[in-house]
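dude i think i finally got it to work??
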Amino acid sequence: MITVLKRPIITEKATRVGHMRQYVFEVDTNANKLQIRQAIKQMFDVEAISVRTVRIKGKVKTRQTRGGPQIGRTNLIKKAYVTLKEGQSIDVVAGEGTEE
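look at this
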């Protein structure tokens, strides 16, 4: 279960949706919504009302070197937007769930 959640995403957009009891996590690309919901409950001891997932394709990156251009691709990632039950929150920095 712990391998389903890779890391919390702490960006400007992710913190903006925090006041609506939503938290954003990078998850395993093969994880489904039920596995994500169970991992959130097991890890933080809070209950998720909804789980929305987004798959972000990798970008093509090019850089110039002495040997010519190097072309590569970033990895595909999957993000999960988790909405918690009223009165519950997750301290993303400390990694623990609380009830208010």
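Residues 33-44 form the longest helix (12 residues).
im so relieved honestly
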